[in-house]
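Worked example

This section walks through a single chain of length 258. The input is the sequence exactly as stored; nothing has been trimmed or padded.
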Amino acid sequence: MTSRVSVVKVGGRAQGDPALDQAIAAQIKNGRRVCVVHGGGDEVSAMQRRLGMEPRFSGGRRVTSEEELEVVRMVLSGTTNKRLVARFSIAGLRAVGISGEDGGLFSAGVVDAKRMGRVGGALQVDAALVRHLLAGGYVPVISPLSRDAGDPQGSGLNVNGDDAAAALAGALGADELVLVADVAGVLDNGHVVPELDDATVRAMIADGRAGGGMAAKLEAALAASKQGVDTVRITDISGIPTASAGTRVLAGVGHSKG
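Given that input, the structure is written out below as C-alpha cells.
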C-alpha cells in the first residue's frame, strides 16, 4: 500500500467542527483511502479534573500516571472514538473504530517513567489490521494508545496522537500525512509559512516561535518526512482535501519527490 493513502490526525477541538465530515469525505471522493487518528486532550483534561486530577504537560505531551492512563483509555478509546465513528457513519463513511492496542497495531517503550509516567515513544507499528480495513473500503478511526513492548503482561501506554499518526503514515507507506491544527498552518509573525525544512523547524522550536502542541506537531511531521511520507502538512480542517493548503514540512532540502 504505497499510494493515494492519507493519514489525517484530528485533535479534540477539530472533532467538534461540522466541516470535518465533509473534509474527510472529499478526500475519499478524490480517490484516496483515508485513515483518521484522533486525539481528545480537552476531554481527557476535563475528565481528569472531574476525578480530582490536575492535567500536566511536558513539551506538548501529556504526563500520564498509571491512574491517569485509565482515564485516557476510557475517554479516547471509548467516548471520543465511538462518537467520531458515529458521526462519520451518519455522513455516509464506512468508519470502524479501533485503538492502537487492537491487533498489535502500536507497541512502544516507556519514554521517561520518572518525568512522563506511562507515556510511550519509539513507536513500532504493525499496520496489517489497518491495511485490511483500508483495502475493504473502511475508514479506520484510531485512538492513540499503545501496548507496552517491555511488559510481558501487555499493559498500555499513552502515545501522543501526532507521533502515532506519523508512525502509522510511515508504516503504511502513505503518500500524505495531514496534521490538523486550530490555525491554517504554522504561523510566523501572523502569516502561514508555506514550507519548512528541518533546520527552520528546529530553530522555530528553539526560539519559541513554535511551542507546546505546535512544537509536537512539527517534530511528528519531521519524523514522518524522514520515513518517506512525500507530503506532510499542518493545516486546518478546510485545508484537509487541498494538497497545497497549510504548511508543508520537509525533512531536508531535496527530500520531496514532487
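What to look for: The first helix runs from residue 12 to 15.
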